[in-house]
Target: DUF2231 domain-containing protein
Amino acid sequence: MSTFNGLPAHVLLVHFIVVLAPLTAVLAILCAVWPAARQRLVWLVLTLSLIVTVLTPLTTDAGEWLEHKVGRSPIVHTHAELGDTMIFFSLALLVAAVLLAVAHVSAARGRSLSTVFTAGIAVFVVVVGVATIVQVYRIGDSGAQATWSQRA
Model:
């Protein structure tokens, strides 16, 4: 997908990632540290993480199309390189959500996981969540620099 209604698809898709990835990360962290939140939000977190994982390659592919249209500059190249790393963060967020779902289902069935394993899941989710938020910021900032620094 290169354009949507005459606009570059990347410009539209990137807004889903910019909103959904940090939102999913924050909700996942909340689920990891607060069991009551996990009971209510775990399936939403799993669904959102799956959506982010599917949208990420679509967004980067649309970005590569746009990169060829606007021309390659060092700042656009930097943004593209950072954008290509987002799939790793999306996949890690999906793994974190799956682990939260496993912990939730185990607890619901009365077979709670060991305290060490549960703590390990919480640490993993927090690290992945924070890293995802930071990476989305870095990618977004480089994209804004690529877009607006050439127009100033």
